[in-house]
Design goal:
Blueprint (H helix, E strand, L loop, with lengths): L7 E5 L1 H5 L18 H4 L2 H6 L1 H14 L7 H15 L4 E5 L5 H5 L4 E2 L2 E7 L6 E2 L22 E4 L9 H10 L2 E5 L11 H7 L3 E6 L11 E4 L2 H19 L1
Parallel strand pairs: 1-2, 1-7, 2-3, 7-8, 8-9
Antiparallel strand pairs: 4-5, 4-6
Bound molecules: adenosine-5-diphosphoribose (APR).
The site of adenosine-5-diphosphoribose has 23 residues, from helix 1 and strand 8.
Length: 243
């Protein structure tokens, strides 16, 4: 144990779950599971066609029952455990709304919300334990009686969660890793640059170079299941060695 100044932030995107069989956003000819994002992932879509939006997210949630965490999720969970034993701060931020990081043993900050959770748009009450929820029936809010709770998903045009905490972690990190994200959706796409400004060593894994990559980033092209286990072991050695 040390009072180390080393600290790691990891940002994951759809690519980390792709090898588990969860569809990425920009991989299906611009469609997400057959839908244009503006038809399912905006407050306007929810106001215009709540049945469609509700069904879409409840089916996505149900589909989580058919997928499992992969070697990349597991390697990040192991890294979290090892760093915690070494007293080194670790922040895992995910843009993903699936629960695969948790099921591998991690404690991520879900900046874009979670499929396994609903939120009352009137009183803010959170609802979990949705296993028996029907994809076609709205759920009224048990706390305030509002006619329907909404998916707890951050839609386009809404403010992502945990931004204060994430920015604080980015400003003080010595190492930053971006995994499986195309680097086009802000504010997450700006984290790499914030980490560089903080002087962190920056590592990027994706199938192809993301939009926000710069020459000083260490880029590892390839599938997350192939790249992340070795990268995690390397980082663990570096971080423990420096602490
Ligand atoms: N391993 C590593 N990277 C992969 C893999 C894989 N097996 N498969 C795909 N990728 C990479 C792609 O090369 C791409 O760079 O993952 C990235 C996926 O990009 P997007 O589909 O754009 O997903 P993401 O960046 O997470 O999207 C950001 O956009 O629609 C919104 O809110 C939604 O959180 C989402 C945000």
């Amino acid at each position: 144990m040390t009072g180390s100044r080393s600290a790691l932030v990891v940002l994951t995107g759809a690519g980390v779950s792709a090898d588990s069989g969860v569809a990425t956003f920009r991989g299906g000819g611009g469609l997400w599971e057959g839908h244009h994002v503006e038809d399912v992932a905006t407050p306007l879509a929810w106001a215009r066609d709540p049945k469609l939006v509700w069904r879409f997210y409840q089916l996505r949630r149900r589909a989580l029952g058919n997928v499992e965490p992969n070697a990349a999720h597991r390697a990040l969970a192991e890294l979290e455990r090892e760093l915690s034993l070494g007293g080194i701060p670790f922040t895992l931020v995910t843009q993903n709304v699936d629960d695969l990081h948790e099921r591998a043993g991690s404690s991520p900050l879900h900046m874009h919300g979670e499929l396994v959770q609903l939120r009352c748009e009137r009183c803010g009450a959170i609802v979990r334990e949705l296993e028996h929820l029907a994809p076609d029936a709205f759920l009224p809010c048990a706390s305030c009686g509002h006619a329907r709770v909404r998916p707890d998903i951050v839609w386009f045009g809404e403010m992502p969660y945990f931004m204060d905490r994430i920015e604080r972690a980015l400003c003080t990190c010595t190492h930053f890793v971006s995994i499986g994200t195309s680097g086009v959706v802000y504010p997450a796409a700006g984290f790499l640059s914030l980490a560089r400004q903080a002087g962190a060593r920056t590592y990027v894994n994706s199938l192809e170079a993301p939009d926000n990559l710069e020459p000083r980033d260490t880029f590892r092209a390839g599938r997350a299941i192939d790249v992340v286990p070795a990268l995690s072991a390397e980082l663990l050695g570096e971080l423990l060695g420096e602490s």
